[in-house]
């Protein structure tokens, strides 16, 4: 049985902790009790990490594609070997069912192997020029990367943040969420154990605002990769602007799901209910606003309520649990507020609507329907186990509702009309669109949003290119 590990930062390959540093209590979301104390960086730690990252970049930018691929493949193999330990640690600190944590490890394995192949596909191009002249466009690694990962995918988020810079030939300082540090450390350790030079990837933790101001205030950092809320993303984009640091921003969403009269409602329900309560709804691409055409509205709403009631809520480490606790104390409080506000404004509560017990951060799988547009939950990302199910008449109204919000991350639709499928693919304002499917990602596919959901992509060739810059060389 894996125990929760003791915690540290990794700076220049060294495990750094103690020394009178401030600490943060990492909490078990099942009980609310402290699992371990996490050391937080002081300014000297961050300066040291920056100096090491600068050296790391000088080393790694000279590495061959084969060397980078070898490290990524080696780390992927170690993740397979360590899958069970890493998954248990993630479930202990974040709460999600063990099966979901195991999948997260395997998503990283797929991504690292894809990126390993991508190392040899970072082609430039030669331009057509008169005889005696030569012009080429080449891709070069951007420089040291500051990467900030949130707590909802404790394994997958650090995997994305580390994998792309390593494949591109950059160095990286990772600050993963203080709530889920051990999973991030386990992923970094796989890279180091696979032979990544210790200067190339480091992990710090701290007071988020202090760390981001310090790192983004340094001329050493050339790229910021952030996943988290739109509010924090906008704040960090402004900090990055002062040093003209390039950014990839993977921010909030408010996933619309359009369910048409001509769809396979049973299949839509089976997919949507599982998708909604996965990781307690704490997923940026979570299906959130169910925009249902009127003939199938009642069937869909009632089916969703049944699906919510069938969830098995419990400790993610126990067999049979389909939904664990929420990840931290802030989430159930936020969901309580959203549901109370929606009810006040006239929404109907079909299932759930309150916390479970008085230990840890459990919340009932919830469904609300006929929710007015001025309810807060119709406009802000709920990030919790609540489905909003509302009836609409026409395709035009449904598309307008899907595009109403400033978010544009994932959008889903269910229809068997091929012409409509094409119209939806054209008209939905989102970085990722699922039609009769909620599988909208993959190691080879760009993951990212438009509008307030951010810019740039992770995964796919785009994920590595986001850590690179072009240089045009013209020879006379
Ligand atoms: P938050 O907005 O304070 O934090 C979101 C993430 O950003 C956390 O990982 C946090 O450590 C980090 N962060 C916060 N301030 C930072 C700073 N100044 N510099 C660097 N990193 C910083 O709130 P929260 O309570 O952790 O999450 C609340 C909301 O954030 C959710 O409701 C959801 O909308 C959003 N969120 C989105 C994702 C995603 O995958 N896009 C993940 C987690 C949270």
Which features does this protein show?
single chain; 476 residues; alpha/beta; Aldehyde Dehydrogenase, Chain A, domain 1; Aldehyde Dehydrogenase, Chain A, domain 2; 2 domains; seven-stranded mixed β-sheet; six-stranded mixed β-sheet; 14 helices; 21% strand; binds nicotinamide-adenine-dinucleotide; oxidoreductase; NAD-dependent succinate-semialdehyde dehydrogenase; succinate-semialdehyde dehydrogenase (NAD+) activity
What does this structure look like?
- The protein is an alpha/beta fold and 476 residues long.
- Helix content is 39%, strand content 21%.
- It contains 14 helices and 22 strands.
- The protein has helices at 43-60, 65-81, 83-94, 98-118, 156-168, 181-193, 208-216, 230-242, 265-277, 294-309, 330-344, 395-402, 418-427, 460-465, and strands at 9-11, 14-16, 23-27, 34-39, 125-127, 134-141, 145-149, 172-176, 201-203, 223-227, 246-250, 255-259, 287-293, 348-351, 366-369, 386-392, 407-408, 410-414, 432-435, 450-451, 454-455, 468-475.
- The strands form six sheets. It has a seven-stranded mixed beta sheet with strand order 14-15-16-13-12-18-19, sandwiched between helices. Strands 9-8-7-10-11-21 form a six-stranded mixed beta sheet, sandwiched between helices.
- α2 runs antiparallel to α5, α2 (65-81) packs across α6 and α9 crosses α10 (294-309).
- The radius of gyration is 23 Å and the shape is globular.
- The mean pLDDT is 97.
- Bound molecules: nicotinamide-adenine-dinucleotide.
- Keywords: Oxidoreductase.
- It comes from Alteraurantiacibacter aquimixticola.
- InterPro entries: Ald_DH/histidinol_DH (IPR016161), Ald_DH_C (IPR016163), Ald_DH_N (IPR016162), Aldehyde_DH_dom (IPR015590), Aldehyde_DH_Superfamily (IPR050740).
- GO terms for molecular function: succinate-semialdehyde dehydrogenase (NAD+) activity.
């Amino acid at each position: 049985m894996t125990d929760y590990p003791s915690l540290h930062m990794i700076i220049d390959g060294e495990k750094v902790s103690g020394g009178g540093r401030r600490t943060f209590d990492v909490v078990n979301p099942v009980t609310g009790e402290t699992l371990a104390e996490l050391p937080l960086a002081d300014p000297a730690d961050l300066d040291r990490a920056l100096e090491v990252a600068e050296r790391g970049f000088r080393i790694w930018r000279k590495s061959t594609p084969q060397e980078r691929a070898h490290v990524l493949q080696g780390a992927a193999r170690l993740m397979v070997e360590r899958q069970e330990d890493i998954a248990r640690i993630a479930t202990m600190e974040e709460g999600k069912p063990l099966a979901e944590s195991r999948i997260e490890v395997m998503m990283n394995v797929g991504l690292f192997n894809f990126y390993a192949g991508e190392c040899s596909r970072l082609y430039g191009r030669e331009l057509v020029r008169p005889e005696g002249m030569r012009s080429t466009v080449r891709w070069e690694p951007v420089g040291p990367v500051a990467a900030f990962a949130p707590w909802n995918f404790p394994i997958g988020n650090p995997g994305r943040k580390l994998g792309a810079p390593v494949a591109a030939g950059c160095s990286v300082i990772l600050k993963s969420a203080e709530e889920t540090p051990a999973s991030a450390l386990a992923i970094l350790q796989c890279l180091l154990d696979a032979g990544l030079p210790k200067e190339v990837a480091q992990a710090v933790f701290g007071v988020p605002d202090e760390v981001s101001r310090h790192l983004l205030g340094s001329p050493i950092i050339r790229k910021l990769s952030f996943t988290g809320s739109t509010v924090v993303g906008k704040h960090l984009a402004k900090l990055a602007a002062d040093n003209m640091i390039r950014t990839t921003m993977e921010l909030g969403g408010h996933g619309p799901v359009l369910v048409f009269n001509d769809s396979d409602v049973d299949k839509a329900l089976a997919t949507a209910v599982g998708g909604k309560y996965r990781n307690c709804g704490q997923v940026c691409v979570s299906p959130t606003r169910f925009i249902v055409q009127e003939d199938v509205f009642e069937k869909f709403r009632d089916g969703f309520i049944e699906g919510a009631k069938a969830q098995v809520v419990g400790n993610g480490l126990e067999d049979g649990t389909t939904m664990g606790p929420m990840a931290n104390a802030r989430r159930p409080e936020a969901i309580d507020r959203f549901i109370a506000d929606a009810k006040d404004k006239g929404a109907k509560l079909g299932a759930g609507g309150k916390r479970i017990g008085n230990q840890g951060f459990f919340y009932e799988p919830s469904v609300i329907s006929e929710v007015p547009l001025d309810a807060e939950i119709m406009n802000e990302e709920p990030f919790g186990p609540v489905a909003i199910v509302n009836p609409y008449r026409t395709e035009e109204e449904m598309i307008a509702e899907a595009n109403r919000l400033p978010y544009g991350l994932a959008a889903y639709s269910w229809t068997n009309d091929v012409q409509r499928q094409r119209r939806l693919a054209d008209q939905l304002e989102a970085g990722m669109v699922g039609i009769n499917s909620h599988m909208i990602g993959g190691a080879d596919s760009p993951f990212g949003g438009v509008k307030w959901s951010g810019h740039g992509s992770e995964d796919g060739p785009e994920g590595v290119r986001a850590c690179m810059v072009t240089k045009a060389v013209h020879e006379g």
